[in-house]
Write a structure and sequence with these properties.
Order of helices and strands: HHHH
Oligomer: single chain
Number of helices: 4
Helix content: 55-70%
Number of strands: 0
Largest sheet: none
Radius of gyration: 14 Å
Shape: globular
Length: 86
């Protein structure tokens, strides 16, 4: 909600992504957090989700690798695959 209400998911805070592309990248963070939390199988579920949330949040919009064109291509591919299923 913080990223959504502060518009940190698009424009300069997120590699200059337009509104819809930034929103798509923000929406993907939820399944990434849940998937990553499963990797922390040696800690209790709440702590695993907290660790995953911190990891994803620290890199969202701040890791320069995520702004590279090949990463944007993969994000577009995920978005189109998800929209074609519905």
């Amino acid at each position: 909600m913080v990223k959504l209400s502060s518009l940190q998911f698009c424009g300069p805070p997120n590699f200059g992504l337009p509104l819809w592309a930034g929103l798509e990248s923000l929406v993907v963070t939820f399944p990434m957090i849940l998937w990553l939390a499963r990797a922390f199988h040696d800690v209790e579920p709440r702590a695993a989700i907290e660790q995953a949330l911190i990891l994803v949040d620290d890199h969202f919009g701040g890791n320069p690798i995520l702004g590279f064109p090949h990463n944007r291509f993969f994000m577009d591919t995920l978005a189109h695959a998800a929209s074609s299923k519905s």
